[in-house]
Amino acid sequence: MIELTGVSKRYGDTHAVQDVSLTAETANTTVLIGPSGSGKSTVLRLMIGLTQPDTGHIAVDGQRLRSVPLHSIRHRMGYVIQEGGLFPHLTGRANASLLARHLGWSADRIDARLDELTELVQLSSTRLTQYPSELSGGQRQRVSLMRALMLDPDVLLLDEPLGALDPMIRTDLQEDLRDIFRRLNKTVVFVTHDIGEAAFFGDQVVLLRRGQVVQTGPMSKLLKDPASSFVTEFIQAQRAPLKQLEAEE
Ligand code: ADP
Known about the structure:
Layout: E1 2-11, E2 14-24, E3 29-33, H1 40-47, E4 55-60, E5 63-64, H2 70-74, E6 77-81, H3 92-102, H4 107-121, H5 137-149, E7 155-159, H6 167-184, E8 187-192, H7 195-201, E9 204-209, E10 212-217, H8 219-224, H9 229-248
Parallel strand pairs: 3-8, 3-9, 6-7, 7-8
Antiparallel strand pairs: 1-2, 1-4, 4-5, 9-10
Bound molecules: adenosine-5'-diphosphate.
Adenosine-5'-diphosphate is lined by residues 11, 14, 16, 34, 36-42.
């Protein structure tokens, strides 16, 4: 479980995150959604300790982030970003096993784990001999997910992991990812600005605006019982193209 209590973070005059309190429950998927610049990525970066809050505190399974060595927290959290963040000069295999090698795992142990993970993320193991530039966007994200899962972390943080993919590949990977989250029973925090994706993944959705939480709850609650007119506007805005089509029919 990850808990943010009264967390604020400023960059110069920009209040990236303002007095945010939220809980990402164990074995659940929490989706952070909101317009561009609403603070979603900053919340994720705060959770993994890549940036420090100005005020408030963050606890992972009851341990305050500042009171434990950051590397121990990071080993318990896998992190996937939009473009995958793979090192271009390393093969898929070297990318996925980077942390394990750093921790001194034997080659046999690494191979066994990579075998498990290729099966889990449904990637042919021959792809692991290739460099990121030789892989498709979807394959790259599968390798990124393997890297994030290598140490079997309790927590997975994903920052628009499907944002750069074309729609068909995106749908495939959405389904595979949801299946993986369910099978592994991990605590997942998933950032997206896509309302359909939020509904698809989120046990709980946290809608952010200008660094503040507007509403938290299952997507059905945001739809049926919006906390403010902004909630409805945000949801409606993304349905607009479909509505227009419906109106034309
Ligand atoms: P989102 O992920 O919702 O698009 P971000 O968390 O990336 O939003 O950003 C929230 C706000 O904080 C934005 O106004 C952004 O420009 C600002 N911001 C984020 N990171 C930095 C940074 N490292 N330096 C300066 N401003 C930043």
